[in-house]
Specification:
Largest sheet: 2 strands, antiparallel
Number of helices: 9
Shape: elongated
Distance between the termini: 56 Å
Radius of gyration: 21 Å
Number of strands: 2
């Protein structure tokens, strides 16, 4: 149903019928209940922590002797959080925390090859989001700090280091003020 059709449908309802309809939607839909609860009592910090736990659990998912986060679940969870309209700062915080958890998975060990591609794409999305909202200055230092923990295995450079560096350069982050070799 389109918004126009919905407006025409709801136009004929009186206040009592609208209240009844909203209560029915509230009781039948988990997403509607969450949205209406947040609309009534917008505790952004509490909701951010709730979603942070879900995202970090999925980002650090370990099965079959390897980290295997499901990127589709991470994106769906972030999309659901954005639908609450908590503000750009809260969304940026969750996106960055999720990115840092994904990078953290590979700081001491190798990851499945496909996961490097997913992390590369996700990092580009995060940096694009931060750049569009002029928030790079606040979050890039955290990403660079995590980059310092990426260790190489013997004589082979960890691919995460290249992914992080390439994405930061593409996003236009000024890396000259940071000591990247610490």
């Amino acid at each position: 149903m389109s918004k126009t059709s919905l407006r025409k449908f709801l136009k004929d309802f009186n206040d009592q019928e609208l209240q009844s309809l909203i209560m029915d939607v509230y009781s039948h839909s988990k997403d509607a209940k969450e949205y209406l609860d947040f609309l009534a009592e917008p505790d952004v910090a509490k909701k951010t922590e709730e979603y942070r736990k879900i995202l970090l659990k999925e980002a650090t998912r370990y099965t079959k002797r390897a980290f295997r986060p499901r990127m589709s679940r991470l994106r769906a969870t972030l999309k659901r959080f954005r639908s609450l309209e908590p503000g750009d700062d809260a969304v940026a915080e969750l996106m960055t925390d999720t990115l840092l958890a994904l990078i953290g998975n590979g700081t001491q060990t190798w990851l499945p090859d496909a996961l490097y591609g997913y992390i590369d794409k996700y990092m580009a999305e995060v940096l694009s989001y931060l750049k569009e909202r002029d928030m790079m200055q606040a979050y890039v230092p955290r990403i660079i700090k995590m980059r310092r923990y990426i260790s190489d295995c013997r004589h082979t450079i960890n691919p995460l280091r290249r992914i992080v560096d390439d994405n930061l350069v593409k996003a236009g982050a000024d890396l000259s003020q940071y000591d990247l070799e610490q």
